[in-house]
Amino acid sequence: MRNLNLMKSSAMNVNITLKTMYRQNIIYLMRKLHKSSVRKSSSLLTNKSIIGRDFLNIQDFTPNELKSVLWTALDLKNRFKNWSTQDSMGLAGVLITLLLPKPCVKNQSNIVKATQLLGARNCTIVDENWECSPSVVNTGRYLSTLSSVIVASAVGSKKSLNDLATGATVPVINLGSPDSCPLIALGYALTVLNACNRLERLRVAWVGPSHSPILGSLLLLMPKLRVHFYFTTENCQIPSNLEEALKLSAHHRSEIHHVEKPEHAIYKADAIITTAHNLPGFQINKTLVDDAAVNWIFLHDLPRTPTEVTDYVFCHRKNSLVWEAAENHFWVTMAVILKTVCDYGPKIPAPMFSED
Description:
Number of helices: 12
Shape: globular
CATH architecture of the largest domain: 3-Layer(aba) Sandwich
Strand content: 5-15%
Helix content: 40-55%
């Protein structure tokens, strides 16, 4: 009888063990399938082509199209960063026209280097009066006869680039205008993605002027990437596109908060962004960043003045990623040029934009 009870007990234990193992295997397989589906959905980003399209404003693109640009930028950085790959992309027939209202070291060097790596050719036009032309539309049409893509910046009117694109028959890319700087905003997103290994549900802070074109682009980009965005401006001035940004935030289930003071924006922030300004009480310093997330990062579009940030933050050996962001601005610019002139697909696995 005792042996029979022992056998029954052993059988029950085996049965429980088998059930536990079965349950664990089911959970394991479900997790594998979930991860596989996430990777599969990420791989679909290669199909989000923007070939032939203007790249003027963030609002013109879907979240997956913007993620595809970031993925391509990472791919190009991985390919060329260590200089082990010396071959170009082979775009020998492509002519990149750079149109500037004034000389700019950063923009000119970025386009020249991108041209070299893409294996293309470039033509640089610096004309302070190009926006004052009687017909900017005709300027776009004329430059299209000589170009595969036009990369331009404007300082006089946000309407200038739209008129240029209206006349152009080739893609027009916005290097910066009075109301938007999409490439700088994407460069920041790439830097945060590299540093934090994700974007969704992170907390990003802006401390600076309400009229900044960088803020204008961040307000439209962060919701599409499902990043929580906290910003503070002088006298709580409201940016012109805040209403549109709030609609995007509600649609993509992210958060946008316009707060009163810099310390409110920076509290628990994963990334802190500013630009050159002289707003009193808006200097980012050690006291403020001590209340940020443990591994906070600092970003600035350059050039820097002493009024908006202290040396402790700007020169922080671990947390200041100012120069990496400047480099990533280049990779994003190159990625947008490449994707507007050809249907390029990244060769590296897609980054995980969320931690799920």
